[in-house]
Amino acid sequence: MGSHGIADRVAIVSMGCTPFREHWDRGVDDLAIDATLESLSAIDLRPADVDAWWLGTAQSGMSGITLAAPLKLEGVPVTRVENYCATGSEALRQACYAVASGAYDVAAAVGVEKVKDSGYQGLNAFPIPTDGTQRTLTAAAMFSLVAPAYARKYGVDPTELRRTLARIASKNHANGARNPRAQFRREMDVDAICRMPEVAGMLSVFDCAGVADGAASAVVVRAEDAHRYTDAPLYVKALSFVAGNGSGLLDPDYDYTHFPECEMAARDAYAQAGITDPRRELAMAEVHDCFTPTELVLMEDLGFSDRGTAWQDCEAGVFDLHGELPVNTDGGLKSFGHPVGASGLRMLFECWLQLRGEAPEDRRIQTADRGLALTHNLGGYPGEMVSFVGIWGSDRG
Amino acid sequence: MRGIITASGYLPHWRLERSAIAAVLGSGGGAGTRSVASYDEDPVTLGVAAARVVLASGIDAELVDSLSFATTAPVYAEKSGAPLLHAALRLPGSVSTLDAGPGLRGAASALRNALHSSDRLVAVVAGDVRTGLAGSTDESGGGDAGAAVLVGDDSVGPLVAEFLGDASATHEFLDRWRAPGELRVHAWEERFGQQRYDDLSVDAWDRALAACGLTDGDVARVAVSAPHARAGAVLAKRLGAAGVEVTDRLERSVGFCGAAHPGLLVADLLERSSPGEVVALVSLADGADVTVLRRTEATMSGPTVAEQVDGGSALPYGKYLAWRGVLPVQPPNRPEPARMSASAAERRSDWKYGFVGSRDRSSGALHLPPARVSYLGQHVDDMDPTPVADRRATVATFTVDSLAYSPSPPVVFAVCDFEGGGRLPLELTDVAAADVRIGMEVEMTFRRIGTADGIANYFWKARPAPGSVTPGEAD
Lengths: 397, 475
Hints:
The structure holds two protein chains of two kinds. Chain A is of the alpha/beta class.
């Protein structure tokens, strides 16, 4: 028994990513087609060249037919997966394993979500019949529980923490302003964010991810085949996933200042990739900044900052575009919005651009020569979440 | 000997100053306050709140043979209300239930039947939410409350009051009426009903005292429950002249609480009386029912009605109108919660209604909701049912959600750590968001979470434990 990973056995050889927008004029079919064809055409493949498909969508469609029908795929397996907000990463993970197993030569992962057809703001889960005792809080409120708990545990003045959270949002907006695919392209300064009215705990709407439609895709092949498709593939160094058992909701010892599922997923991923000092070994990280306190705590859960110090590191600019370890260089969920099925693949798309030196100059990281990038994607709430960590490298070890 | 084992009234947290009505409408209202059920309370939850107090008095709930529930505002027409109380109170499956209504008189009839019954223990419960058109005397003069009277033989437990005798008088006349679902109560000229009640109350009173072999002067204290202030005035005047104390009808401080009013007054009457005193309840509603009791030395527990009258928090009139649906207000632009699943709710009845979790025998870890596999050690199917409704908890952390769907936003939500272990994130109620603190002590309360597809969905919330809120201390 053990988690062994598939380091250097498979490679990403092409990617696509639509702009993330309120796509009133594009349906789930359009978005899936656009993202898929972008990745295939870049390496002169046609849909028929792909042996197996994984579709990540949380609630824009059911079954593989959601992808097979718009692309008119013939005689191939399409697996629709859902794993909360980590759905896009889950689709990619399954495609990687399928290729590593030897079952298929070419696999594609497509993540898509059409959020803006619901008629409501925000994300709204479809109802599963229950006994009616479940809470009906928003995700913003659930994650807002982290801020006062963190402030209390580490003795951070709540006003100071308010500014730290605003700084995280401001940093991501600054990066997103330099990204044509991002939904929000306006810079926001810290003072303006701090002045916004609270909507959930101490969080304002500017502490929350946007809401957008979008799709992204990746083509996966065996590592030894990668150079048949591209000169600059990304190799899979680690794939880890932890589904929490919800004990944080039961256990009075859980204090809302960390996400154990993310810590465990990171530990497994670093072991698979042989990483011991992520802050210095990684060139960049794309993390699940669904709400600003989430990104704060993730800096500690992912081992970038010591416990209780991430707020100081955020303030010191450690995770800025040109900081010690750039985080969310594409603007993150904050600037992109969160089409659930697509976000995990969108994160990898940024690593794809940065490690290959293709990111536009005004948001290009200076650490790309470290050659390793991390994507982190979570779903659920503090106390009850799923977490994905992937590590990607430009060199095959 | 038959009698009352204990009785309790429950007044909801909120109060409407009647002067606030005239401030908005330009007239009406009057003086004093009325009690107001929260947006998440209804006759069922008010009844549960009162009944929990009497059942926590040390009596073995397994001895309850029957449960009656009276209200003028039933949650359902087709479905009975009492089984909901039965589930929330975790009464035995062998209990017989009776919905004593709709109609004002059911509450007094149920009490009478319980006193004449051969059942070991009868829970006589009522709950009412009294509404009316804006500016109406029903709105200003009504009140919301729950009441519970536990009736039984002294072989079951000590009686706080011995049943001495009673009498009823029935006579058809049209005093007040309301079609099912109608907000407005219509009334005939008040003097007509008043005079009918005068005759009926004197008739029933005289026969009740004759049955007990007593005269007016033997009675220390009497409470009169009536749908309008003047009903029963002739009898009250006569008794006052004979030296009988006629207790406050609670009309000025609480309002007339409909089907809950007789039980509320019984609790108040017994709480005010001394051992050996003869006391009586006169209940006027489409007839007259007189019950004569003798207070014993047994003690009563729980907050008294008088203590609750002095508590509570003021509610703005606009909020009152919105809570009662008299004034429709814009809901948040979020999908309304889906209806609960009847079969899922039934499978989890102990949890949903009874608030029973499970405790892992090996690790001692409490699981809320109950689980088959322990989160500590993964032991399988080795847990004991553990009720938590009567346990207090402490707020570990909390948030205020202005975006979530709620009949009365914002949602105040707290991670609650229970005395004796266990944690459950719960919605808070009966509290202003600014008054919530980490470390605040809370108690559990059965509430109506919402309504979807005509289905009332109930579960538990937490509210500040008495004495745990000091308003105006915001950080």
